[in-house]
Amino acid sequence: MRHFFLFTALLFVHQCWGIEERYLHTFEQQDGGGNEAIKINIVREKEQTKIPFIDYSHDWLKDYIDNVSYNVDGFFIDAFFSDDIIEDDVNGSRAKVSFFTRRKIGQPVDYKYGISVKLVLPNTDERFNLLLQSSDEDEGERESNPINTVDNVEYSTALRYVFQETERWKVNFDTGVRWGLNPDPFSRLRFRRYAYLDDFRIKATQNFFWSGNDGFGEETKVELNQPLNIDRLIRYSAGAEYLLNNEYFTLNYGMALYHELNSSEVLAYYYRAGGDTVDKVTFNNYGIGIRYRRKVYQNWMFVEVNPELETQSDSEYDITPIIMFSFEALIGIR
Fold first, then answer.
1. Residue 288, domain extent
2. Which domain of life does the UniProt lineage start with (predicted)?
3. How far from 113 is each of 209, 263, 310, CA to CA, in Å?
4. Cα separation of 319 and 311, whole Å?
């Protein structure tokens, strides 16, 4: 029996040496063997040329969207769609440059350029912000000539003081001037309150404002965000604005379903309605549409296509197709 175990052990060692020799023989034949140094060719990826300022913007926006996009919520929607960087609650200095076109079927194409800047002033404990904004897309007359659009853009500048900024309360005061043929000074005080329920996140905003042209007024907005799952969210919204000089309310409400298709694309289906209280509470402007928004370059350039069907009392409620296109560049300053 002892001879049997000895024979088995010798056979096992012989087989192991055979495997090792075959492995080393193969290695030597392919990679030189002997005293010849083994050469390993490393394929190096070409480095992309980066512009520091643009790279800062890319990193800032990427980090912010990545941090909030684990679940689609109101902050993610505000950051991705960037409808109003002056009024949203994304922290830090930001700038947006946009080009917007809109066409009603049977009418010429309208063009509009826009710029918005929110600059947090240094050494102020983030209490003071400098604001620069062109006229809103819904304000004033659009131009049918892109060159005239650039020439006729009006701007406003303001200084913002932040009284309070916590998880549930945001209070700030702005004062500035809208620049045009007749400069229009303005001031506004904003209160914003957040509430978190089991199925809803509520954002309520109250603005009190004054301007030389429009006088005193107030605006109330309420948003309810309801996450459906990790990539879908429903937003219900309602608002009212009152001007003392007009002595009636302007009303609006709407609903939108946001669907994050992937990290670069978001699709939104929406319904909106607008009205007033000139005679009685009446809604006379309705719209239904789709917003498709996509990142087209890194994480800071976006394009959006927005087809819509609109009907209003001024056109005897005829359905009017509208197509809108926008290009935006978002810049974050760290």
1. 52-333
2. Bacteria
3. 26, 27, 23
4. 5
